[in-house]
């Protein structure tokens, strides 16, 4: 007879102890660890896998070619300007084709996301530049074109303004200026009425001049420079003041290239990039040639990694002339004596996979493709049929928990009472200035500033808004200042302050009326960060983990019930013996 233990007796009933195998099979894993430890080990492994998955999702960096999604089969032509032509708060693209044809690609919600919807052709001449803006103050987008003769008999440029009406352009509604220009003019607000003016050297002038404020001032170029590129203005070192950046070459072939910086109030040029050597290959800027496919040496500015310091895109050519590519110039802390006074410098990002695959690049600029506050890249390259440029769009997959504020300042010529019941959005406004102050993640004060549409000539390709990187600081912006030009003779500043601006948001400022800043309005639009998606994934993962634990415990309980039923079937009373 099989012996029984009385330690498990209850109410005169003696039960057989469970077999050892039942103990080892119960729990979350194999082996003979206690059930609690086995469950903890499984949960720890699951959480580790979840963290690894999130890490892989967050580790996405580099660029992704999305040209087919954006343009389909229309990815060719010369990208000439940006602007919200149809006032839908989405930036449209102005593209030149055939030398005398302008196409406006309107943003759409379906692929391809940019479609050519507006077409404008000129009968005589070649279009050299496009500058969208509201040139008559009706809060509707007009388009200014500069043209030169088809046969290139003279280098004089003519200016034509096509007047926009109801989100269309009519080739018969235009104004041709009665003066020609020696070079492409600058579009600026000279008299502070928030209507763009045309400033340049006409055929009646005998010498070029640079107008700064109310004083005519000519700034000397850096010493030992032979070729000078196009000036760029940006807050390079994050001190809240705008610096002057100038790409230049010490020889006509640009084998000795450099980028110089000049701070306000100092008559000194400071080199912020002189090292253009990658391993055994020496690179340099591409010298300008007076033909249709050549573009002056220029830098296109944008905060690629949202660290609060503007980066740049530049076209470089190796000294042998066999390759011409677009490169990202990253704004990094200074590590040599020449730039110590500004504490920052440019460093060429030589290895950027999809960008390096584009050969014979001509122009590279930043553009927020998906309106998410992250600056992507558009590159024009040679090699398309009929001497047209190919358009390449690269999505920026940079993820580093960085934050931004996107600011656009409108003309403010009207607010809620615009003529023809149009919306006040959609006009490119040169002249406004934005500055902010906040506190970074380490508790130090952080400043930044930017001007809106400070350039217009030679395919400047500046965006009609400013994306201000804030780094990894998720703090509110303590102060955001917006200023607009004021008329000559007016002493009071036209400036307004907003406080506690939420990061990862877009601020649309309507300075109406111009002379009463306290009445200006601002519309705030929030842009959720990718951290929201990652948080949702983590939450779903935790829920799945909890459900798995509940399922395992339920399975254990059911197994224990089955075992108890089997034991119940073998019970007997001692009185029956």
Automatic annotation (TrEMBL):
GO CC, any one term: plasma membrane
Cellular localisation: Membrane
Boundaries of every T-cell immunomodulatory protein TIP C2 domain copy: 424-525
Primary localization class, coarse: membrane
Keyword Glycoprotein: yes
UniProt xrefs under Pfam families: C2_ITFG1 (PF23122), FG-GAP_3 (PF13517)
InterPro entries with a match to the protein in the record: C2_TIP (IPR057089), FG-GAP (IPR013517), Integrin_alpha_N (IPR028994), Tip (IPR024881)
Residue spans crossing the bilayer: 531-555
Keyword Oxidoreductase: no
Membrane topology: Single-pass type I membrane protein
Keywords annotated in UniProt: Glycoprotein, Membrane, Signal, Transmembrane, Transmembrane helix
PANTHER family xrefs: T-CELL IMMUNOMODULATORY PROTEIN, T-CELL IMMUNOMODULATORY PROTEIN HOMOLOG
Entry's family note: Belongs to the TIP family.
Protein name: Integrin alpha FG-GAP repeat containing 1
Organism: Terrapene triunguis
Lineage of origin: Eukaryota, Metazoa, Chordata, Craniata, Vertebrata
């Amino acid at each position: 007879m099989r012996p029984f233990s009385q330690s498990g007796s209850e109410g005169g009933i003696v039960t057989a102890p469970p077999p050892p195998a039942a103990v080892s099979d119960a729990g979350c894993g194999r082996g003979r660890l206690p059930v609690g430890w086995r469950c903890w080990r499984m949960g720890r492994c699951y959480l580790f896998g979840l963290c690894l998955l999130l890490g892989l999702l967050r580790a996405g960096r580099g660029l992704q070619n999305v040209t087919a999604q954006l343009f389909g089969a229309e990815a060719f032509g010369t990208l000439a300007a940006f602007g919200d032509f149809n006032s839908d708060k989405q930036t449209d693209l102005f593209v030149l084709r055939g030398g005398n044809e302008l196409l406006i690609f309107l943003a759409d919600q379906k692929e391809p996301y940019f479609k050519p919807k507006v077409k404008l052709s000129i009968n005589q001449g070649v279009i050299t530049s496009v500058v969208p803006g509201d040139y008559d103050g009706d809060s509707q987008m007009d388009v200014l074109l500069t043209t030169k003769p088809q046969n290139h008999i003279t280098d004089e440029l003519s200016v034509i303004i096509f007047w926009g009406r109801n989100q269309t352009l009519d080739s018969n509604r235009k104004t041709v200026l009665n003066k020609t220009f020696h070079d492409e003019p600058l579009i600026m607000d000279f008299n502070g009425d928030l209507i763009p003016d045309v400033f340049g050297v006409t055929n009646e002038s005998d010498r070029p001049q640079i107008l700064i404020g109310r004083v005519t001032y000519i700034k000397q170029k850096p010493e030992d420079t032979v070729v000078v590129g196009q000036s760029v203005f940006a807050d390079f070192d994050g001190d809240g003041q705008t610096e002057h950046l100038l790409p230049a070459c010490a020889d006509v072939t640009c084998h000795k290239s450099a980028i110089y910086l000049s701070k306000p109030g100092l008559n000194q040029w400071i080199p912020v990039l002189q090292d253009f050597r990658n391993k055994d290959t020496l690179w340099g800027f591409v010298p300008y040639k007076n033909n249709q496919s050549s573009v002056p040496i220029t830098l296109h500015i944008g905060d690629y990694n949202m660290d609060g310091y503007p980066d740049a895109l530049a076209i470089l050519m190796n000294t042998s002339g066999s390759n011409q590519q677009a490169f990202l110039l990253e704004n990094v802390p200074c590590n040599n004596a020449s730039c110590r006074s500004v504490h920052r410098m440019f460093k060429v990002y030589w290895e950027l996979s999809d960008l390096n695959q584009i050969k014979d690049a001509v122009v590279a600029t930043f553009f927020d493709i998906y309106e998410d506050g992250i600056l992507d890249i558009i590159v024009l390259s040679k090699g398309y049929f009929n001497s047209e440029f190919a358009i390449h769009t690269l999505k920026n997959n940079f993820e580093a928990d960085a934050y931004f504020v996107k600011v656009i300042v409108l003309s403010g010529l009207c607010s809620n009472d615009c003529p023809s019941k149009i919306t006040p959005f959609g006009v490119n406004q040169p002249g406004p200035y934005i500055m902010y102050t906040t506190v970074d993640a380490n508790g130090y004060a952080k400043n930044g500033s930017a001007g809106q549409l400070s350039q217009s000539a030679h395919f400047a390709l500046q965006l009609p808004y400013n994306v201000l990187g804030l780094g990894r600081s998720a703090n509110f912006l303590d102060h955001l200042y917006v200023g607009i030009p004021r008329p000559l003779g007016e002493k009071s500043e036209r400036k307004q302050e907003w406080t506690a601006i939420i990061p990862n948001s877009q601020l649309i400022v309507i300075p109406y009326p111009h002379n009463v800043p306290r009445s200006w309005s601002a519309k705030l639009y929030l842009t959720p960060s990718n951290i929201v998606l990652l948080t949702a994934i983590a939450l779903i993962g935790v829920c799945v983990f909890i459900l798995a634990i509940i399922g395992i415990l339920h399975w254990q309980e059911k197994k224990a019930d089955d075992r108890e039923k089997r034991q119940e079937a073998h019970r007997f009373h001692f009185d029956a013996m």
